[in-house]
Amino acid sequence: MRALVTLLSLLSMALAGPDAVLVVREQVLEKGNVVEYIGTQRYPIQNEEGLQQLLQQQSRAPRPAHFVFDQSRGWIAVQKLGYRFDAKAVLTAYRAALEAGKREFVLPVTLELPKPSVHDLWQRGIVSLVGEGRTNFAGSPPSRIHNIRLASSRFDGVQIPPGTVFSFNRTLGPVTEAAGYQKAWVIRGDQTVWDVGGGVCQVCTTLFRAAYFSGLPIVERHPHSYQVGYYKPTGLDATTAPPKDLRFKNDTPGHLLIQTSIQGNDLIFRFFGRKDRDVTWQGPVVLWRTPPLPTRYIYDASLPAGYRRQIDFAAEGALVRVYRTVRMQNGEVRQDVLESRYKPWGAVYLVGTRR
Predict the structure, then answer these.
(1) pTM for the whole structure
(2) Which residues of 189-218 are buried (b: 16+ CB within 10 A; e: fewer)?
(3) E strand or H helix at 195, and its extent?
(4) For residue 218, what pLDDT is reported?
(5) CB-side exposure of 104: number of CA atoms within 13 Å?
(6) Percent of the chain with pLDDT over 70
(7) How far is CA 195 from CA 85, 147, 199, 235, in A?
(8) Helix, strand or coil for residue 158?
């Protein structure tokens, strides 16, 4: 029996085709340099049908370079080269190896570079983490979370050339139902109303913090009317409602790359570029406070009687300052004061009246 098993095994090996060898080339941007890694992957091929299946499995589109955090190497930029196979050329190589009795053959493959590639990032001076900002949206209704995801996706992968002033509104585009936004609670003047785009200001605030903590000059920034619970610590928020905008300048030596992500209930904006400064900040310092306003109720006939939900929380009026120091590598020291004046605000409840 053992001899029979051995014979069947030898026959199987004889009938099987040569192994296909895929030469893998990947480039990584780490510690300011582009490093290339070359390796091989081996795939046993039983027949021509199996070869075609392999080509379908391995064909892929290129994936743009982006930064990921590695425990041992820190922030590195990775990419995926695209693999495109000419089925006729692959079949020719396979049959030639089969006829020659070879045990392997190299898969002919056309490599497609992603845009941007890690080399593109390196050429533009995008080599390391410059700064980040984050906010928490725990407790937000589903429509608000949807808007946060949609709006933040508009900024992911955006590059800011050196010397340019970046505009939040221009990059975001229209906030409409046609653009995919949903209705949620949003501040309009001195009222909390159910309107399209609630949650977009959380994206604006998070982007502002990334720019602020990166030490970039803030050209235009507007605080909210009142202190919003989502944006702790206070004094580091930014609202936008055209013509109001959030604008800041890229005065670093190279391009800046924006990457956005959501981890749990945290929205995170990160700036990657060439770090040429260190940033420290102090605060928030509250110079004066005033008590919150009385509670308000919004009655809604579309909701059943007895329905009651708090949609906004009481907040003190306040004058808040945050102090920033930016130390440049050339020895220059910049200091500025971020001031926010907040109106007092009362808790707001949504109350159903339908019978």
Answers:
(1) 0.88
(2) eeebeeebbbbbbbbbbbbbbbbbbbbbeb
(3) strand 191-196
(4) 98
(5) 10
(6) 94
(7) 50, 12, 10, 25
(8) coil
